[in-house]
Amino acid sequence: QVQLVESGGGLVQAGGSLRLSCAASGRGFSTYAMGWFRQAPGKEREFVAAISWSLGSITYYADSVKGRFTISRDNAKNTVSLQMNSLKPEDTATYYCAARRSTTALAYGRSYQYDYWGQGTQVTVSS
Question: If exposure means fewest CB atoms within 10 Å of the residue's CB, which of 4, 33, 76, 100 is most exposed?
Fold first, then answer.
């Protein structure tokens, strides 16, 4: 089992950057595929980015963030990060980190594919 804690959210102006981090506790972090999702008020939770297990050779992004966001992982530190650049007001949401035990070279883009979730961190982008 793994526990996830997100950090790094905040208030930023449009065009700015933020870096979210997700710290995982528990054993075997490298055997988990990881993902980031977000949920804005009154909207469904949506996929943002995902990375495969181990070295994270496979990454996958929502079209809305492709070219602006980068997901990465550091297995030595049990963390996964989301670098967010060129932020837009429509990126405003609560961002959630998610984990799924997987030893296949896949990155997962559906919320039901994940077994563990963090509590979320708020990102607000002002115009």
Answer: 76
Beta bridge partners of 73: 80
- Within its chain, how far is the Cα of 115 from the centroid? 14
User: In the prediction, which pLDDT does 25 show?
Assistant: 95
d(Cα 32, Cα 20) in Å, to the nearest integer? 18
List, for residues 74-121, the tens digit of each pLDDT value.
999 999 999 999 999 999 999 999 999 998 889 999 999 999 999 999
Which residue has tokens 């492709």? 66
- What whole-number distance in Å separates Cα of residue 95 and Cα of residue 77? 20
